[in-house]
Amino acid sequence: MARYEIRLSGAGGQGLILAGIILAEAVVKFTDKEVIQTQSYGPEARGGASKAEVIISDEEIDYPQVNKPDFLLALTQEAYNKYNRDLKEYGIMVVDERVDIAMRGGPTYVVPIQKLTQEKLGTRMVVNVVSLALFNKLHEVVESEKLKEVVLARVPKGTEELNEKALALGEELASNLNQYKIKTKEEEEEE
Amino acid sequence: MQGNEACVEGALDAGVTFYAGYPITPSSEIAEDFAAKLPRVGGKFIQMEDEIASMAAVVGASLAGEKAVTATSGPGFSLKQEIIGFAGMIEAPCVVMNVQRAGPSTGLPTSPAQGDVMQARWGTHGDHPALVLCPSSVADAYLLSFQAVNWAERFRTPVILLLDETIGHLRERVILPRKDEMVIANRKQPQGSPESFQPYDILDEDLIPPLPPYGSGFRFHTTGLYHDETGFPSNRPEVTHRLLERLHQKIDKYKETLFLYETYGLRQANQLIISYGASARSAKAAWRIAREKGLLVGLLILKTIWPFPEEIVTQVGHDKNNIVVAEMNRGQLIGEVERVMDKRIPVRGAQRADGVLITPEQILAKLEGVN
Amino acid sequence: MELEKYFRIEKLPHIWCPGCGHGSVMMSIVKGIDKAGWDPTKVVVVSGIGCSSRAPGYMNFNTLHTVHGRPIAFATGIKLANPELKVIVITGDGDGAAIGGNHLIHACRRNIGINVVLFNNQIYGMTSGQYSPMTPQGSMATTSPYGNIEPPFDLCELTRSAGANFVARGTVYHLPKLDNYMEKAFAREGFSYVEAISQCPTYYGRRNKLRSPLEMLEWQKKNAVDIKKAQDMDPEELKGKIVTGIFAEKDEEEYTSKYDQLISSVQGGKK
């Protein structure tokens, strides 16, 4: 793919920075694409809105920052408010169902990620891994098994089973993503 | 691999066995990584009570025979300056990694900047030389860290690895060179007997005296005062002159081998972008876009900024009709380029100092023929 | 004299003023090293800036004359790099108690095997007589022309509280006792602090009605109180006195030996 910019955002502590690192690591390990990962630091990373950014490209990545994301994940309202502005017009947006969003032109999915993670896995701790698997399945960056390998090497011992379930849930959400799609501006106007 | 982590890997591969530091954003990952890795190879890590103490401990460890490193950011770099000068004067090999953040003062601790370019050159008092390297990728961070340790040992001098927050915190793919391709330099050891040893007796063409570690039997005196070949203080003008000249000459003599840089698209170029550190990433993007637009633009990325690669800049820049210097400050290295070009060629600055990485568009805007 | 081998005879005479006490303290250190039986090639003497800090230049060991206030930090690097080395820091009341105070307390806290000897002449001599943190209250100095209103630091109390394994204070007048403290300090593992009350006739005595070195030594004799005796005296009586003796003698584990254990455990007991 040509340069593809990804922004994973949510509340500090949700583990999205780790998700970004895992994604970048998977790309380095299992593809011949170039990848760059950056993240928010300091107080920003600990509370309020926090983000991890990944750029994937077939070519050398010179300018290392995300300017116009092709993909935005926002798990919280604050993250959405802060980070949605520069999303590409036809970029993909995935938000948690509790986030109020403005109508837009690009493909937009409102997914009960946090709720389903809690219901199906009994904890929201792994919402980052669910999100990561959702993204990976949607874009097929690396094979599921490869992603699993990187995730399991990075998570605390004793949480492997939980994380495997989280990966499965994320993939399931990706497969059914169309049911969460909301109408774009144009579609609305057509009706 | 992250930029800060790559600095640690490069230093360890160059044989570093000692780290002393004080926590400061955005360099703390360097300390954390050394704290984890050094004991595994039998090395030593210590978190000192302040920035000054950590610089002092590094120089102490160096004299005891270790390859020693510290890392910091702007405020800490300011505090370390006196002892960086001391290390230069007594010729103690050591490496100071400065992951620049936006200043002055506490500034923006988690934002990139290149405001310490002149401080890296002139931060410590007196008329001293400086050896400063600027990585613009994670791979560079590894290689230049390795190189910094090697040069510190070979030239018996402090070497400054001047990163910025962007490169320090960046993760990207790095292909490390094979270990057997990396040549490690060690400080010179005395050939004669301890009895006849004079610590600053210059016997070799390279103007660099040997440095035996404490405890090896060679006893000598070291002082930050001007000293003669015996190591003892002297205020004789000829001794003062000789020492200061030698401190400069030992680096000047080899400076052409010290100029590390990359060039792109120089053939037929009539404009030139010069950049370094994280700004060079944006400069590379600007160069690529300009080329796509059909502009004849060349790019010079400096890895060694001090000593300033005057000869390289002259050689690459002399036939251009526009030179753009891209940096994240209000114009620091541009002064050197202007000095070298001596008003013969217009030199424009693409500058940014608001804690945000300079963009390719800002650099493009300074080129001629971009609409 | 057999102690001659520990000196760089060719560097003598020293730069200290006539009547200065620093030569005596330097000699006391050398006697201590001799008693300890240390191999001179394994001894590193580190100093900062000031009159006392010129001493290492005359001493035939590995000697390092550093920057103002930081010799303990340099010494920490040396000792941690090579724990086999015997590391002595020579500092003064300006170098050690003012600019270098923070390094002193942290070295005590770590209990790193460094022997600090502080030459306390109660004045900044090198810069011609400004008051230091250890200048007695009421004293005249170039920067306290109306008398010093600051109370002096008691570094023996400070270093004891901060965790030093050995702490003692002696005077140039009571030299045999000072020799004994050096011997004990050097024999003990961990951090040691020995304070030697020295005299500066040039910059302290002249301004404070102690006109000759002899008068200054008399002052030391008159005002020194043994720590055991001091325990039975009330604070009012102790005002202006110099409490001498051993303040701490402990055997807490030394820092670099703990670090070596850390290395072994991280490496899983194998190299």
Primary descriptors:
heterotrimer; A: 191 residues; alpha/beta; Pyruvate-ferredoxin Oxidoreductase, domain 3; 7-stranded mixed β-sheet; 8 helices; 7 strands; 42% helix; 20% strand; globular; C: 271 residues; Rossmann fold; 8-stranded mixed β-sheet; 8 strands
How would you characterize the overall build of this protein?
The complex is a heterotrimer of chains A (191), B (371) and C (271). Chain A is of the alpha/beta class and 191 residues long. Chain A has one domain: Pyruvate-ferredoxin oxidoreductase, PFOR, domain III (Pyruvate-ferredoxin Oxidoreductase, domain 3, 3-Layer(aba) Sandwich), CATH 3.40.920. Chain A contains eight helices and seven strands; from the N terminus they run βαβαββαββααααβα. Chain A has helices at 16-30, 43-46, 77-83, 113-121, 127-139, 144-154, 160-175, 185-190; strands at 4-11, 34-39, 49-57, 71-74, 92-96, 108-111, 181-182. In chain A, helix 6 (144-154) packs antiparallel against helix 7 (160-175). Chain A is globular. Chain B is α/β, with parallel strands linked by helices. Chain B folds into two domains: 3-181, 3-Layer(aba) Sandwich (Rossmann fold), CATH 3.40.50; 262-364, Rossmann fold. Chain B has 13 helices and 15 strands. Chain B has helices at residues 3-13, 28-37, 51-63, 74-90, 117-122, 138-155, 165-169, 237-252, 255-258, 279-292, 310-317, 333-341, 360-364; strands at 18-21, 44-47, 68-72, 94-102, 108-112, 132-133, 158-164, 171-172, 221-223, 261-264, 271-276, 297-302, 304-306, 322-327, 347-351. The longest helix of chain B has 18 residues, at 138-155. Chain C has one domain: 3-Layer(aba) Sandwich (Rossmann fold), CATH 3.40.50.970. In chain C, 37% of the residues lie in helices and 17% in strands. Chain C has helices spanning 22-36, 71-81, 93-99, 101-110, 155-162, 175-187, 201-205, 213-223, 227-230, 235-238, 255-266, and strands at residues 43-47, 62-65, 86-92, 114-120, 166-171, 192-197, 224-226, 242-249. In chain C, strand 5, helix 6 (175-187) and strand 6 form a beta-alpha-beta unit. The longest helix of chain C has 15 residues, at 22-36. Chain C is globular. The mean pLDDT of chain C is 96. Chain B binds chain C through residues 17-18, 20, 39-40, 42, 44, 46, 48-50, 52-54, 56-66, 68, 82-83, 86, 194, 213-225, 232-233, and chain C through 8, 11, 40-42, 44, 46, 56-57, 60-67, 70, 73-82, 84-85, 102-103, 106, 259, 262-263, 266-267, 271.
